[in-house]
């Protein structure tokens, strides 16, 4: 267990996935992994293959929302799935405190605080997902069906 205040790293994500027997791969880049078009070119990726994790709250309960990197989270669509609920995006500070990772490198798993996972339906159309790997220069490659199976995620239309 990590001490309070200690940031998590890609090795924590790797160990978590390895313990769960989930196939995955990491790519370490020279610069911020998801922000640099050159990194996407090196990996032979299109931006639509890259996803991000955003922490939201639904009636005060944390949800990890996995959506395409080139889209925004849609609170309107989430409210359609959770009518009469208060839905809000966590602040960057709260995301760091809850996950243990720097915003921009948040992986979809191995967070400090347990949360329910939602996966945008467009993510499930991809063979593999490339996402934050726990450090700014790390990318994680994982199959969406493995992520859904591991987290018990609900697949919904939550991006725009």
From TrEMBL:
Membrane-spanning intervals of the chain: none
Pfam families: tRNA_edit (PF04073)
SUPFAM superfamilies: YbaK/ProRS associated domain
UniProt-recorded Gene Ontology molecular function terms: aminoacyl-tRNA deacylase activity
Alphabetized InterPro entries for the sequence: YbaK/aa-tRNA-synt-asso_dom_sf, YbaK/aa-tRNA-synth-assoc-dom
Domain YbaK/aminoacyl-tRNA synthetase-associated: 41-148
Protein name: YbaK/aminoacyl-tRNA synthetase-associated domain-containing protein
Sections of the chain in a coiled coil: none
């Amino acid at each position: 267990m990590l001490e309070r205040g200690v940031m998590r790293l890609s090795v924590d994500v790797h160990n978590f996935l390895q313990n769960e027997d989930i196939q995955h791969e990491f790519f370490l880049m020279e610069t911020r992994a998801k922000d640099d078009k050159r990194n996407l070119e090196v990996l032979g990726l299109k931006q639509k293959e890259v996803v991000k994790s955003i922490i939201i709250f639904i009636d005060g309960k944390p949800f990890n929302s996995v959506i395409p990197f080139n889209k925004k989270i849609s609170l309107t669509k989430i409210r359609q799935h959770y009518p009469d609920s208060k839905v809000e995006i966590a602040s960057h500070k709260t995301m760091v405190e809850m996950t243990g990772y720097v915003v921009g490198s948040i992986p979809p798993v191995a967070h400090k605080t347990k949360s329910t996972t939602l996966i945008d339906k467009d993510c499930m159309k991809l063979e593999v997902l490339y996402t934050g790997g726990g450090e700014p220069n790390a990318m994680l490659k994982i199959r969406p069906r493995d992520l859904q199976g591991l987290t018990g995620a609900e697949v919904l239309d939550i991006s725009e």
